[in-house]
């Protein structure tokens, strides 16, 4: 049977400096009429970590009651803590690796309240400022945001209502990057239909803690409820870039709106705020929404389970499926894959960790995975693969104006089957009714802006797909005009050109043909402004085009000019012309524009003809070219560090200068200066002349200074007797090792050393040379142990910054590589992971120093012969 993971480890941050409220909810039961008023029994429930012994729940705490319609404050109640209980557990499932201890306190505030019957209904609110810190699905550096917990009482005649109440267990475990399935169902005593969805967690905006304390002096650090809560509306917490209120655990986790079942793949380790809303729906109308807000701690445990997505969609184009088990538990050692078609015939089997198969024919296939057959923690799972290429979601919309119906048209195509399911979300954040299950729905937006419209479509073959598209909602339909101001020379006519969706009307009607089209023809005899009106389903817009009438073309080119040979020049006539023809065309980038760019190597006369309709004018300009002076700075060169270089400049001009990026400068007055750059530098040789081209010519020579040799022989190391040691020097191009004892070569950078007897310290020297022959030397020390391969880890460390024993680190001897070195705290939280010998944990989590205590470490490695090495133990952090 498929193993179901447990969800929602509700604990606070393990840091001693973090705050402690990890979640809460409020619910009520209608008690009847008491003293002539509807009366309700209300329960406020809050969670906090057991690992914050100096923190307490607030007693008393404030409960605010507000008008549900306008947010007006009705009253504030100070309610004492009714009771407190502790829940704790550690999973005993042998198939869960590194199961953490779960422990939290639950506080209850229970009271009765009588409220006058109101058509608007009520919102009950409790707020705290000490929500736990370091929440992973919020923006980094968000600071203290607090939490707001609410319950809604509907207005008359529905006031005799008992709220929905969540019934799921909170004493649960969730493992990072593992699949899970957990029912977040609620019960409703009135029998209302319930609809579940992820929603935004509320922060506490505009609320101050009043200096801390327990609301009425209850303890050293209380709930910070020392003043009444602020009135609605309430604001969302600042979610990070990969999360939102609708996806608090990322895009791999979903909630079933009808059952409250949450399924998917958990994100990485850390603390995540999750809020689930449940709507009470009576006679098709949502009468109230109840919320549960939790911070869940996802740990580094793993579950040995066969884990797949429930469905794999190969419905667009590809018929190839590559799939792997989603569980990364180290306890899984064997795999068996079996793909079968709808007739039960097996089409593919494999024992590989990853299955890869291309289906030869469309159809619905069953994917089966069995893990650890005949071993501890066996498991199996089945999933469906829908292989029906040619299913392509698409939609369009007609209309884009506020307060006007926008028609959405499904344009999904499918090669097989028929489209039979539509789930629209119109992306209007201000409404909870912006959805539809019709094929071609209409929706009226109350405000402007870009709306992310989402369509989920299914077909009768089982294919499912989602398309999200941005739709701009405007206050009027857009009109596109090709031009807004132009000229015409009678008796010619002109075509006006516009774009948009709707009915076009142009005015005035004189001298116009096609006034009810997007692109009419006009032939005015005097300057005329034409207006275009666009009507899109009653949504109106207006724009205009000015047509000026002339009886000739004005045209004048600048005076003849001189340029440097090969330089581009922009020809700029003064004219009211609209069309242009330039000659010679070969020397111009665009011979039909008003201001073309000419590039010539000899003196050239250009002619241009400008026209408006049938009116034309012509003018000429002569451009004379003068060659640039010659400038050559010499070839780039390479010198050793702190050496000199000889430059060689060459020019046919009458003047020159040298400039450089080097701080030592360059001697002036000579074309052949001697320079000593401190580092690689560019030297710019500039030449000018007086023959008519006034522009200087520059050339650059780069003198590359080789860096000072920094020879490196390698880090000091330790090996075991008989282990080949791969040396690896760096810093140059030629290497010489000494002494030659035990070396496979003395003239390469990476010889192999082999020792036949133990030694406490053997010293090698390497001399390194670069391409210019510069040299430097370095040393390394080798210790040879007469022992088996080993990883040494200290039993205690003192991370106080004194440079002595500041890290819990592995020292590898006879080890080829460390695959992982992991450290866990007493709650099973992974606090460090690394692979480097001699480098380890500094006693901090996210920059916060951890308290003294015992920590568990594990190391896995391969020795120099390729055999696996595994070891675990404990170490004490001392402060």
UniProtKB/TrEMBL annotation:
Residues 327-372, 389-473 form the PKD domain. InterPro entries: Ig-like_fold, PKD/Chitinase_dom, PKD_dom, PKD_dom_sf, T9SS_type_B. Keywords: Signal. PROSITE patterns: PKD. Residues 1-18 form the signal peptide. It holds the Pfam family CHU_C. This is PKD domain-containing protein. It comes from Chitinophaga lutea. The lineage of its organism: Bacteria, Pseudomonadati, Bacteroidota, Chitinophagia, Chitinophagales.
């Amino acid at each position: 049977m498929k193993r179901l993971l447990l969800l929602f480890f509700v604990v606070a941050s393990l840091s001693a400096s973090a705050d402690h409220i990890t979640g809460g909810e409020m619910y009520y039961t209608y008690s009847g009429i008491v003293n002539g008023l509807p009366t309700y029994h209300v329960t406020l429930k809050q969670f906090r970590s057991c690992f914050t012994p100096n923190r307490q729940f607030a007693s008393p705490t404030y409960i605010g009651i507000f008008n549900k319609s306008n947010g007006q404050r009705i009253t504030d109640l100070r309610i004492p803590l009714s009771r407190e209980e502790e829940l704790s557990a550690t999973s005993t499932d042998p198939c869960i690796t590194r199961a953490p201890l779960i422990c939290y306190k639950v506080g209850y505030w229970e009271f009765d309240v009588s409220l006058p019957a109101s058509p608007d209904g009520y919102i009950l609110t409790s707020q705290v400022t000490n929500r736990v810190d370091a929440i992973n699905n919020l923006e980094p550096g968000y600071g203290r945001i607090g939490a707001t917990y609410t319950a809604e009482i509907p207005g008359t005649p529905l006031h005799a209502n008992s709220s929905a109440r969540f019934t799921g267990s909170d004493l649960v475990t969730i493992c990072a990057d593992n699949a899970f399935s957990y029912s977040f169902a609620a019960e409703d005593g009135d029998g209302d239909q319930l609809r579940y969805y992820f929603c935004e967690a509320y922060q506490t905006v505009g609320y101050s803690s009043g200096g801390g304390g327990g609301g009425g002096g209850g303890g050293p650090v209380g709930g910070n409820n020392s003043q009444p809560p602020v009135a609605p509306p309430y604001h969302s917490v600042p979610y990070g870039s990969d999360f939102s209120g609708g996806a608090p655990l990322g895009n791999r986790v979903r909630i079933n709106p009808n059952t409250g079942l949450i399924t998917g793949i958990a994100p990485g380790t850390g603390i995540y705020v999750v809020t689930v809303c449940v709507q009470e729906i009576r006679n098709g109308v949502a009468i109230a929404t109840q919320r549960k807000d939790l911070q869940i701690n996802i740990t580094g445990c793993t579950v040995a389970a066969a884990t797949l997505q429930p469905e794999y969609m190969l419905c667009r184009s590809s018929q190839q499926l590559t799939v792997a088990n989603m569980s990364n538990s180290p306890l899984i050692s064997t795999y068996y894959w079996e793909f079968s078609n709808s007739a039960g015939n097996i089409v593919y089997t494999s024992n590989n960790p990853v299955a890869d198969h291309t289906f030869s024919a469309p159809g619905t296939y069953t994917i089966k995975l069995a893990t650890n057959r005949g071993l501890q923690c066996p498991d199996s799972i089945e999933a469906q693969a829908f292989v029906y290429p040619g299913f392509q979601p698409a939609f369009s919309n007609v209309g884009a104006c506020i307060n006007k119906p926008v028609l959405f048209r499904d344009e999904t195509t499918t090669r097989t089957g028929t489209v039979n399911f539509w789930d629209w979300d119109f992306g209007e954040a201000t409404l909870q009714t912006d959805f539809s299950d019709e094929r071609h729905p209409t929706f009226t937006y109350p405000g402007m802006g870009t709306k992310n419209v989402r369509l989920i479509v299914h077909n009768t073959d089982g294919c499912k797909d989602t398309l999200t598209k941005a739709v701009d909602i405007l206050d009027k339909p857009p009109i596109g005009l090709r031009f807004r101001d132009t000229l015409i020379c009678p008796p010619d006519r002109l075509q006006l050109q516009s774009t948009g969706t709707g009915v076009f009307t142009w005015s005035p009607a004189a001298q116009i043909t096609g006034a009810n089209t997007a692109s009419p023809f006009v032939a005015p005899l005097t300057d005329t402004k034409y207006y275009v009106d666009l009507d899109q389903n009653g949504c109106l817009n207006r724009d205009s085009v000015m047509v000026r009438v002339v009886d000739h073309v004005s045209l004048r080119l600048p005076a003849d000019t001189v340029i440097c040979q090969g330089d581009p020049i922009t020809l700029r006539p003064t004219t009211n012309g609209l069309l242009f023809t330039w000659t010679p065309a070969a020397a111009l980038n665009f011979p039909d524009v008003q201001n073309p760019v000419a590039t010539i190597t000899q003196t050239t006369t250009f002619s241009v003809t400008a026209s408006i309709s049938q009116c034309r004018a012509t003018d000429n300009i002569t451009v004379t070219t003068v060659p640039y002076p010659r400038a050559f700075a010499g070839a780039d060169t390479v010198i050793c560090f702190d050496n000199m270089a000889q430059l060689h400049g060459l020019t046919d001009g009458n003047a020159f200068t040298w400039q450089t990026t080097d701080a030592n400068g360059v001697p002036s007055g000579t074309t052949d200066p001697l320079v000593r750059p401190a580092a690689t530098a560019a030297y710019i040789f500039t030449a000018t002349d007086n023959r008519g081209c006034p522009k200087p010519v520059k050339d650059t020579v780069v003198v590359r200074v080789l860096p000072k040799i920094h020879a490196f022989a390698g880090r000091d190391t330790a090996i075991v007797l008989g282990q080949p040691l791969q040396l690896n020097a760096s810093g140059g191009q030629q290497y010489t090792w000494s002494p030659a004892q035990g070396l496979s070569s003395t003239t390469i950078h990476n010889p192999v050393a082999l020792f036949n007897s133990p030694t406490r310290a053997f010293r090698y020297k390497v001399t390194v040379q670069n391409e210019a022959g510069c040299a430097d030397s370095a040393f390394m020390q080798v210790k040879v142990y007469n022992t088996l391969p080993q990883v040494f880890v200290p039993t205690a460390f003192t991370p106080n910054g004194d440079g002595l024993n500041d890290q819990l680190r592995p020292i590898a001897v006879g080890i080829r590589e460390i695959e992982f070195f992991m450290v866990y705290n007493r709650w099973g939280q992974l606090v460090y992971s690394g692979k480097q010998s001699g480098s380890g944990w500094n006693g901090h989590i996210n920059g916060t120093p951890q308290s003294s205590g015992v920590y568990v470490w594990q190391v896995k490695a391969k020795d120099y012969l390729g055999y696996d090495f595994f070891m675990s133990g404990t170490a004490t952090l001392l402060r």
